[in-house]
Amino acid sequence: MDNIKFAESSVIIGKIRCGENVYISQGAVLRSKDDSISIGNSSMVLENSVIIGTKDNPVKVGSKTVFGHKCVIIGAEIGNLCEIGNGVTMLPGSKIGNMCIFGEGTIIPKGTVIPDESVVVGRPAKVIRKLTEDDKNMIKRMRGNDISLKEFKENIFEKEGEVNMGTLHRFKDKYPSIADSAFIHQSAELTGDVIVGENSKIGSGVKIIGDSHGPVRIGKNVNILENTVLHLLPDNQLIIEDNVSIGPSCIVHGTVVGENTVIEAGSIICDYSKLGKNTLVKSGSLVKQRSEFGENEILEGFPAKSIGKNESKMEKPDWIL
Description:
Shape: globular
Helix content: under 10%
CATH class of the largest domain: Mainly Beta
Oligomer: single chain
Number of helices: 1
CATH superfamily of the largest domain: Hexapeptide repeat proteins
Distance between the termini: 28 Å
Radius of gyration: 20 Å
Number of strands: 42
CATH architecture of the largest domain: 3 Solenoid
């Protein structure tokens, strides 16, 4: 397949269209719903990054673009020769031009358009300047002094379905209890005092740790997406109520999450906090320890604050499993 390399611990779900010399690194997850991910020649997706394409928001990546560690890309279009720092999040409908540089931890909001040759930082992202000649030389040097672009030669890599069940670990006298209708991806790991309810889905690379610190209770119809971690401090509990959706690369620690809540990609929820029913936590937000929010809140920021109210019941996002 024209020197395409997928690391052994990477996960491919659905149909991926790749050019020549594409590299997908360890722990990276690419999930393509309805044939919705295309990656150009000589592009790289580094460790523990997550790329999710959907029918309404496909992912299109140009050639010689490099994603750093733990990036999250959902339904974005990215041009050629981009340098994307560690921990960058790009949200549905965002469009990135050619030869752009992104600082670490940058969040690109939904529908944002970034012009060619931009330097971009911030949460949310801001274009702070155009590329200098030094910037362009760095991009060229990082690509072996060759920024020429070849014609895209498509290779199709397809994996049908997802394999159930993940790895379950005993901790002392506690062992995870999984409902028969629940789905646990084969690369997920659950440890100790964990209960997963009916029809819930745990994505690839997820770690849920219910060790001696306390119980983890996951309700019905819950989605916990790729490379998310659930854990808790001592003398605490972690309760995820029914119909909750947790996006990729989140950290959820010792909290109570009310039913029908949506926690978007890359968010951090800290111990002893509480989220009311039908809450929306926007991408990259931090809910501090011991924070409590009522029902129907929209939370955003680092730390998170309420920026408004949901006027109706939250719909399941299209990026869920």
